[in-house]
Amino acid sequence: MIHPTPRLRFAPSPTGPLHLGGARTALYNWAAARAMGGKFLLRIEDTDQARSSDASLQIILAGLRWLGIDWDEGPERGGAYGPYFQMQRLDLYRSAAERLVAAGHAYPCYCTPEEIEAGRKELEAQKAGFVGYNGRCRHLGAAERAAFEAAGRRPNLRFRMPEARVLRVVDLIRGEVEVNTKELDDWVMLRPDGVPLYNFACVVDDIGMQITHVVRGEEHFLNGIKQRLLFEALGAECPQYAHIPLILNKEGKKLSKRDADTNMLDYRDKGFPPEAVFNYIALLGWGFSGDRDLFTREEMVAAFRIENIGKSGSKFDEEKLRWMCGEYLRRMGADELLERARPWLGTAVPEAVFAGHRGWLRNALACYQERVALFGEFGGKLGWLFGELPVLDAAAQQNLAKDPACKAWLAGYADLLAASNLAPSYPADRAAADAAVSLPSKKDAPPPAGCPWDTPAQIEAATRAFTERIGVKFGSFVHPVRAALTGTDKGPGLFDVVFLLGKDACVRRLRAAAR
Ligand code: GLU
User: Fold this and answer.
1) pTM of the model
2) Which letter, b or e, does each residue of 175-204 get, where b requires 16 or more Cβ atoms within 10 Å of its Cβ?
3) Cβ(334) to ligand 1 under 6 A?
4) Best mutation site among 29, 48, 85, 198 for ligand 1 pocket (most ligand atoms within 8 Å of CB)
5) Are 173 and 240 in contact (CB under 8 A)?
6) Whose CB among 158, 206, 215, 510 lies 3.0–4.6 Å from 186's, allowing a Cys bridge?
7) Catalytic site includes residue 381
8) What is the Å distance from ligand 1's center to 107 Cα?
């Protein structure tokens, strides 16, 4: 009897990090479980002991948590269907194996790896149309088995595939597919040391954990056929299978390490917003209603149906992922942005600024909110705000060298600022005014009453008046001045720069450049 509540699982092997494909599989199973009001569990397929490690497991769990994929049963949570580590379930595999042998569905195979290989080559040479295990031990009698045992051979257990049976199976994504079992050989279920192989352990556990739906990569499609037969042999009902197409690179080839970060935690560490990565991964094979690309987890859950996963491979596009990250950053409030970007500002922003000038720092980040995609990109942008003088890059030097008259403008502007009521630096007393300031500056701001310098818009009006007075084209003025103040020709507009630096730093930097 299939469980009345949908139960889905993600079953990673802890032999490496959580990569993009695994994350997508987890995400779809999670979303399907949540959409159907079912349970999502995590099963750790750690039977490849040589390659499995606790370090990999921790990286996988951290990757899932970072993406906001939570599990109802599994490691760290427990549950009524555990244990959730396959190496803790060896007794269950042994007793299932005994039942299968007793019923004639499995048999001991004494072939050595060399004999198996030789048999395979022979089939190949005969052009038998089938290449795999030749079935030598399929029909051994008791005496032959005893002879192998006496010779000290310890058998693998093989599943006896039905001969030439045509299976018509329904996959939730591919639809109806026909497979002839003669294309598949008798496969090894259990090693002599009692450690199961993937297909066998997977089925025993899918039965034991009462899994109702399995969503996984299409590389498991043929495994799914073997698994269906094993369910049948064990007298259990098979879950509904959905095999999702591969993720491709831009050229339409299988995605490789060169095309994308293979560890989810690399995205975390570079400061990708996880909700954007979640959103992007969700779209690798599934579409939200209409042509909407951005949606929340809750919206996805409300809309998700396994049947709507696409049949063709979807392409991973790093640019689109970054665009999406940028969209998420732009929708963030200033406080949230500062809080979440903070781990990446560590070395760029002095600790005292965090403690004493949060309002100012919020404004500094806001200046870049339209220009960056990742939390991790803020740190590298803010360096010019601190320290005595900026380091001039090549473009800044060019800007300063363009017009010989430029030094005089810089000196004049320095004097103007020195005499103005621009705040001296980024002191705490600025924080109250910050709330009222809208950034980035707007050209259509009303002209200043008197000559206040409290907002970028006011700074702009006063600066324009100054350039008119000295008879310099505004466009020619802005670039060298910004270069002198920031050391580069990129970054926020001049008035945001002046506003953020404050009087002391502006005057110091302008005078240094004028010298
Ligand atoms: N451990 C398998 C894998 O990582 C699980 C496949 C499945 O979901 O059945 O590919």
Assistant:
1) 0.90
2) eeeebebeebbbbbbbeeeeebbbbbbbbb
3) no
4) 198
5) no
6) 158
7) no
8) 25
Atom number in ligand 1 closest to CA 45: 1
**Domain 7-75+197-247 homologous superfamily, CATH:** HUPs (3.40.50.620)
Helix (H) or strand (E) holding 380: helix 378-381
What is the average per-residue pLDDT within 176-196?
Answer: 94
Domains 7-75+197-247 and 394-514 share a fold: no
Q: Which of 127, 257, 443, 473 is catalytic?
A: 257
Pairwise CA distance, residues 165 & 176, whole Å: 16
The residue with tokens 């720092």 is 361
Q: How confident is the model at residue 214 (pLDDT cuts 50, 70, 90)?
A: very high
Reply yes or no on domain 93-190 having CATH 3.90.800.10. yes
* Residue 413: pLDDT over 50: yes
Q: Specify the ligand 1 atom closest to the Cα of 9.
A: 8
For residue 227, the ligand 1 atom closest to its alpha carbon is: 9
Q: What is the mean pLDDT of residues 146-164?
A: 95
User: In 106-165, at which residue ranges do the beta strands (DSSP E only) sit?
Assistant: 106-109, 156-159
- Residue spans of the domains in the chain: they are 7-75+197-247, 93-190, 264-378, 394-514
Fold of 264-378: Glutamyl-tRNA Synthetase; domain 2 (1.10.1160)
CATH match of 394-514 with 1.10.10: yes
The Cα–Cα gap between 280 and 24 comes to 10
pLDDT tens sequence across 129-148: 777 899 999 999 999 999 99
Which of 48, 60, 216 to probe ligand 1 with, by most ligand atoms within 8 A of CB? 216
